[in-house]
Amino acid sequence: MATKFYAVRKGKKPGIYRTWPEAQKQIMGFSGAEFKSFPTEREAQDFITPPEQVAVDWAAADTIEAYVDGSFDRISNRYSYGVVIVKNGEVLDSFYQAGSDSRYLESFQIAGEVFGALAAIRWAIEHNYRAIQIRYDYMGIEQWALGMWKTNKPVSKDYVQQFKELAPQIMVRFKKEKAHTGIEYNELADQLAKKALQK
Hints:
The chain is of the alpha/beta class. Helices cover 33% and strands 29% of the residues.
């Protein structure tokens, strides 16, 4: 029987447990519990204290931020994303794209959101950045990538698979923004996503 390590990141007593009943005691009745099982103790420890949680200077030359947003057109059955690449308050690049893959249509604009995040990460890798901060307004972008939400649909499964391929090449951080609250670059990403559907 394969050994499993149960990591409790948020619970009554965070830590690594060797059996599910032990881990379960720490999360039962605990609101907002975060936990996951791993085949190795190292992976479990990294889940509790991610190695990328070292301080990042987002003003440093080798770091970048990206605002991403998605949209969906029910008439043409297409999803889209808009990405705005920002450095020290200046837009370095912006781009958008629409898609119509039938596997993702049931997820509407969420498909655009997650593929926008992947496009931003690829851009940063291609331009030799060490770290990127993805600023988003849909929680799934972060929760799926970090293994906090289950991947039940094709869009989330494919997103996680592609994220795992890209993640070793660059440090990725996530920061949630409230949608439609006047944040300049977030609004611009939203406009670009809508523009992609006008083609």
